[in-house]
Amino acid sequence: MPRRSQRLASRSMAFVLAGGRGSRLHELTNFRVKPAVYFGGKARIIDFALSNALNSGIRKIALATQYKAHSLIRHCQRGWNFFRAERNEFLDILPASQRYNEQTWYRGTVDAVAQNIDIIDSYDIDYIVILAGDHIYKMDYEEMLQQHVDSGAQVTVGCLTVDRHEASAFGCMAVNESDRITSFLEKPKDPPGLPDDPEKTLVSMGIYVFDWQYLRGKLMEDLGSESSTHDFGNDMIPEIVAAGGAQAHRFEDSCVREAGKPAYWRDVGTVDAFWRANIDLTNFDPELDLWDTDWPIWTYGEVVPPAKFIHDEEDRRGSAVSSLIAGGCIISGTEIRESLLFTKVHTNSYASLERVVLLPNVYVSRHARLTNAVVNRGVHIPEGLVVGEDPEEDAKWFRVTPGGVTLITQGMLDRREAAK
């Protein structure tokens, strides 16, 4: 019998799909999966899904990993090791481990869940929340769980409301007046409008709520299917929609935000989007509130000293304006504007940074001048390097994006040095 006296979140688990490579981030995911990519000065992308679950009251979490997972696993071991099994709470990491045969890894999002049925059974849950681990947003899953139970749906799909003319890039939902999903269309040329606003469309966030026993049966069916692609978006969700059992949940109904602010959700799956989302945090009043103590973004907190600014001379002043500077940084005679520096960055005299994202442990030598750039972890910027002023020259050595952002890695700099 369901335990009605408990909050829905306490009777639920979050299953986070964190195995995607994120190939559009190019060299940023050469050594780490997309959910392990850094974000916001000290966090990783995965921290948003995990923090949402924790803040929503979900204390049973599983994380399915596959592609280049070491950085992600290490981050979770260091930063998410505070769950206590004796309180019936945990974060289990579930790497693809060929549990069914020696040839089969996770074949898709459905298969990643199906291969762990026995583990999920041991959690003794009523509901399961399936999450993508690679988006930036703040959301109370308890609200979505409550709608799922109230609607009696077989699946509830988290949906963003977007302008209809922009919806063709997504999986789109046609809904009726009660937000029951009547059809699911993958990247349609003519997206369906909403009953209450024909110029808007609901698109899938890749977030699903199921009754566990119902989903368990569907997973067993999928395991035995030779025609399935073992994917929620391609196979299971359209099938449930066709049977009339899918409900849409609008993100704005559960988004955690200040009154009057828009619902914030970002897919930082390209270098341009990654750069823009980080630089937007330097705005006077950013849409994403990382200072909210009521809904904190938990992460691994390195033990580092405060940021340090030194030198106060003309053309050699350690300063930062409209910027975020993490702990452990030393800003030695560098002028910084509208930039975000992660932990343990060291910059030197007469250098300048404008609209630049520096990942941890970057070293910037004297007289370097960087504009509109992303610099990967551990890179040593050589003395006098100028980036962001001559796109043709930059493109000879670095990756220049369609939006004009330059991505710099140590390998690129080494090739540039070797060519001299």
Automatic annotation (TrEMBL):
CDD domains assigned: ADP_Glucose_PP, LbH_G1P_AT_C
GO biological process, one term: glycogen biosynthetic process
Domain Glucose-1-phosphate adenylyltransferase/Bifunctional protein GlmU-like C-terminal hexapeptide: 305-408
UniProt keyword annotation of ATP-binding present: yes
Domain of life: Bacteria
Chain segments annotated as transmembrane: none
Record: residues binding alpha-D-glucose 1-phosphate: Y106, G171, E186, K187, S204
Known EC number: 2.7.7.27
One Pfam family of this chain: NTP_transferase
InterPro entries per the UniProt record, alphabetical: ADP-Glc_PPase, ADP_Glu_pyroP_CS, GlgC_bac, GlmU/GlgC-like_hexapep, NTP_transferase_dom, Nucleotide-diphossugar_trans, Trimer_LpxA-like_sf
Site (Could play a key role in the communication between the regulatory and the substrate sites): Q66, W105
Catalysis: reaction(s): alpha-D-glucose 1-phosphate + ATP + H(+) = ADP-alpha-D-glucose + diphosphate
GO molecular function per UniProt: ATP binding; glucose-1-phosphate adenylyltransferase activity
UniProt name for this protein: Glucose-1-phosphate adenylyltransferase
Organism: Alloyangia pacifica
